Task: structure prediction
Amino acid sequence: WDIQIDGLTGSRGPNNNKGYTSNTYELASHYCHIQGEFIRTPVLSAWPPNENVRKKVRSSYHHAFMTAAYAHNELMNDSSMEKKLDATLLYPNVLRRLLETFLAFKTPASNNGFAGAMRDMGAKLESMGYQGDPNALRLELTRFTHAYSHADSPETDTVMNPDEIGSTITAVFTFMNAIDQDHFRGLCQLIGADPKQLLQEPKPKDNTRKEVHNV
Result:
């Protein structure tokens, strides 16, 4: 539909006075505190946030990055259990797809599957002088995506600890930034995000941890 609208005569936006005027909206769910209870209510909001993003959301990779950044900001502004539960249901698959696409771009010749590509990137991080523990970072992401993406059930009592989703989103961004900072900053520039607000402090190396061979 977005491409079809682009083909119409006239420009988008409410100030257009010729041709067909159009806007794009997102139907999102928000929690409102009504009579002592949190009630999920539908809300229409202008989408996406700017014209450059609108043209890029036709790429599933750009769209996945944008939605993950949006989830991060939402959790930073509202860390209620309702927001965390929503994120645990919606974003594990998005994060897996984001990492898979990023790895396909960085290691196009790899045929070791997702876990193997993550191992290769962990080794690369070490050689690049990453200040944190590269193995801890990639193991955290590999375990999370194996355990929670492509879930068979949408039931909220079968998902991970809701407190884990926020830190995992920042771990994904930290992983991408450590491997290719220019690429990560370009994505942030596109959506108007501050790179520093999406990253976590590097975790120190744990020399006592042993490799997990089945991830």
Summary: Residues 166 and 183 are 22 Å apart (CA to CA). Residues 81-106 form the longest helix (26 residues). The radius of gyration is 20 Å. The longest strand covers residues 25-34.
